[in-house]
Design goal:
This protein is an alpha/beta fold. Helix content is about 40%, strand content about 20%. It contains 6 helices and 8 strands.
Length: about 200
């Protein structure tokens, strides 16, 4: 018993394995993309999604966020083993009920080549405000990101600038999630389960 107790304490203190917290279930949604096609939360099942938020007139802020998103995607594709799980990018538009043409134009202006999702004011409030717990004001141009796993669980929220570069931090956290996905069976699943139990979070 003493050995087990000491082992548990050592695991909690030294954190030989880290995991991303399971923060809460992400919001369900049925929105419209930049082409006017239906886009739902089911499209993200089985896929790790890096989420960002943008207004249609956020200028250089959107450019910076798009550049971070592109950098993360390139580095994840090149250097991160997600255990065969796909990785995608998604941006939620904060402006209520924009025409798809406006969304497409803003997406192109930001240099983004991934899906942008738009909806009514009530839909955006439900998804962004209640689901991701972020301001839905289109004048709020603070960069913000979230990582959602393939089960629709939010595993990371990033709303404030830190000393760490956003891209570095996001890639590192996605790599941690990839390690968990690669070890989700056998003995590894017990180790990663223990990491969650002891809250071995980065």
């Amino acid at each position: 018993m003493l050995v087990l107790t000491l082992g548990a304490i050592a695991f909690a203190v030294f954190q030989p394995v880290q995991v991303l917290p399971r923060i809460r279930l992400g919001p369900g949604y049925a929105l419209i993309d930049q082409d006017g096609a239906r886009l739902t939360s089911e499209d993200g099942r089985g896929v790790i999604t890096l989420v960002s938020f943008a207004s249609l007139d956020c200028g250089t802020t959107c450019d910076d966020v798009a550049e971070t998103m592109r950098e993360v995607r390139e580095r994840v594709d090149a250097d991160v083993d997600l255990g065969g799980t796909d990785f995608r990018l998604l941006t939620f538009v904060l402006d209520p009920s924009p025409a798809p043409e406006r969304v497409a134009a803003a997406r192109t202006a930001a240099g983004a080549d991934w899906e942008w999702a738009a909806g009514t004011e009530a839909q955006i409030e439900n998804v962004v405000g209640l689901g991701f717990r972020r301001s839905t004001a289109s004048i709020d141009t603070r960069p913000g990101y979230a990582i959602v796993d393939g089960w629709g669980v939010i595993r990371g929220e990033y709303q404030y600038q830190t000393l760490a570069d956003d891209a570095d931090k996001l890639v590192r956290h996605i790599d941690i999630l990839g390690s968990e996905l690669r070890n989700d069976s056998g003995f590894g699943s017990f180790v990663y389960g223990a990491a969650h139990a002891f809250q071995c979070y980065p």
